[in-house]
Amino acid sequence: MLPVRRNDGEITMSDFIQLHMLVSYPPSNLNRDDLGRPKTAVMGGTQRLRISSQSLKRAWRTSDVFSANLAGSLGVRTKDMGSAILKSLQSGIRLSTVIKGDLQEKASFKPVDGKKALSLARQIAEVFGKLKKGDDSVEIEQLAHFNPEEISAIEKLIEKIAASGKDPDDNDKKILMKSRTAVDIAMFGRMLASSPEFNTEAAVQVAHAVTVHEVAVEDDYFTAVDDLNRGEEDAGAGHLGETEFASGLFYTYICIDKTLLEKNLGENKDLVKTAIKALVEAATKVAPTGKQNSFASRAYASYLLVEKGSKQPRSLSVAYLGAIRDSMDLLGSAIRALEDTRKKIDSVYGKCWADELIMDAHAGTGSLDTILEKIC
After folding, report:
1. Residue 116: in which H helix or E strand, if any?
2. Do 108 and 90 touch, CB atoms closer than 8 A?
3. I need a labelling partner for 318 at 20 to 30 A (CA). Which of 22, 173, 304, 310 fits?
4. Segment 290-339, tens digit of pLDDT
């Protein structure tokens, strides 16, 4: 097994699960840059479409697949927890209920008056990071990822100080925790600049997805018709607009440090298994949400290669350093390029995997259900 030195200096041996996926999206704008254009990257001297790892992880973390399989084991990432705490204090409604947006529920504890509630909310929120300037601000300057244990601890503290009317003391403020159940934090990590001892090293690394072929971003000039315009005075459209789009076959690479994931989740083997299965299912089925109403560019992975082993992981993106140009069978060529590159790298370096699982929708072989059953 591969020895890995963690940030805390500890040396451990890791098992890895690597995912290599090919996903084809029709005309779309899944992930936009600052000008509203689909994100791109130059690779091998040619322009490719790109979907950032942040966009992919956000789509998977907030997907129905995650919420259905990992209910109660997901955190909340926000700058605005202070506002939720303030609303809870002022309304007497439990924090977990406020976070869900249900403010119609009956109060479960005695509400706290305005100025006092604001002071208390600020004291609790600043445990998780520096607050924005302003005496009335309860917003944290940086996004903080709250795990379920911390949300529960905050909720209990709110009810305690609401009942006592006293400010929280230093012991009360010990609500930062190293989560043992927040799967999204265990997978993708978290950083608390003001309390680095409660940071979590990400156990899942996600590469930016890039197309295996050259891509040109196109312009879509569109109009919208006014239904009440009878054409008697103005026969023109009610709205003119322009958007940009492109389509492509993307290669996506994901590396799961299973050993670190187990450590992050307190060696809860069942939760680790459920988490990995949820990630694989989401990665193969869930697309980023950008411009979906305009393009309906939802897609499942057409090819998935899973490698399990304990040697140094590696991406196979070099298979597409030369843009594929096959108008007759692009997907087939992409699969052959991936598998051929893998064989050549393995022949030079030796296999970094001890076991493999393959789902190939192009050939109609393998199945996602089989992979989910055997991956752990």
Report:
1. helix 114-125
2. no
3. 310
4. 999 999 999 999 999 999 999 999 999 999 999 999 989 999 999 999 99
